[in-house]
Design goal:
This protein is of the alpha/beta class. It has 2 domains: 174 residues, P-loop containing nucleotide triphosphate hydrolases (Rossmann fold), CATH 3.40.50; 42 residues, no CATH class. It is built from 10 helices and 13 strands. Strands 6-7-8-3-9-10 form a 6-stranded mixed sheet, sandwiched between helices. A 4-stranded antiparallel sheet has the order 2-1-4-5, covered by helices on one side.
Length: 283
């Protein structure tokens, strides 16, 4: 379908600190792309560059088929951005926050209540932001992104610090937007979130991309053990190699009614990241 975002040798420096070191990435139209890394890895800096809030020290970015330096105001209207530092107005209601952003954009969709219902906030339409829980605030921030019916969404840690039920609700909203054909650029340090949502991911560490690919492909790439873990109904466990002999053994266990579970040994993304960097994604 073609790249919606192309990042070419992007560097960025704050003072003497180089926080992005030659980033090369492509994000395809209609996919959920995940940028994973610990706090301080450079994830938010890259989103700030992609959304025009920062100019890279070196390299270039192409979005929507144009160089980022040539993007017009109308082009930016096709982007929705959800970031912690994009604050909501505490003393205004949910409805009035969205109404304000419609006015800023110079558009009137007439769909504010519909969008609030879509994100599960219709009953809170008149509630002030100061009275919302963190999860409700995140949903309202997501609703603000939806006002534009964007072609590209930039979501910076959209579920950080939320309870599991709220995380699940936001994940469902993200997947629904993908179904509509929206391209979604997601930053996270939550490996389970990336494995569930993302078509492709890049692992970012200290300003460098250390691995790229589909989550399951990356995990298979680092499956050094290449074994099958078998748990039997008597409570014992077996580790079997990937061989025809093991297949025969598993068939025997099945015939005897002894097999309870079987799993391959490929690592998760957290384990891969630790192998590559010596530290976890949450550090």
């Amino acid at each position: 379908m073609g790249a919606e975002i192309s990042i070419r040798d992007v560097h960025h420096q704050f003072g003497t600190q180089m926080v992005l070191k030659g980033i090369q990435l492509e994000v395809q139209k209609g996919e959920i792309f995940g940028l994973l890394g610990p706090s301080g890895a450079g994830k938010t800096t890259l989103i700030n560059i992609l959304t025009g809030q920062l100019t890279p020290t070196g390299g270039g970015v192409e979005i929507l088929g144009k160089q980022s330096t040539a993007l017009s105001g109308e082009d930016y209207m096709q982007m929705g951005i959800m970031m912690d530092n994009f604050g909501l107005y505490e003393r205004m209601s949910c409805f009035d926050n969205l109404k304000f952003y419609e006015m800023v954009d110079g558009r009137g969709s007439g769909k504010i209540l519909e969008i609030l219902e879509y994100v599960g906030l219709k009953d809170a339409a008149k509630k002030k932001v100061s009275d919302l829980s963190k999860g409700m605030r995140n949903r309202l921030s997501f609703a603000r992104v939806l006002l534009r019916s964007p072609r590209i969404m930039f979501l910076d840690e959209p579920t950080s610090g939320l309870d599991p039920m709220t995380v699940e609700a936001i994940h469902e909203l993200i997947l629904q937007e993908k179904e509509k054909g929206t391209t979604i650029f997601l930053t996270t340090h939550n490996m389970h979130e990336a494995e569930k949502l993302c078509d492709h991911i890049a692992l970012l560490n200290e300003g460098n991309i250390v691995e790229f690919g589909a989550p399951e492909e990356i995990c298979r790439r680092y499956n050094h053990q290449k074994k099958l873990q078998v748990h039997l109904k008597d409570g014992s466990d077996l580790a079997l190699a990937h061989t025809p002999e093991s297949g025969a053994k598993i068939a025997e266990l099945l015939r005897d009614g002894m097999l309870e579970t079987i799993h391959s040994t490929e690592p998760d993304l957290e384990t891969v990241f630790m192998e590559l960097t010596g530290k976890g994604l949450d550090k």
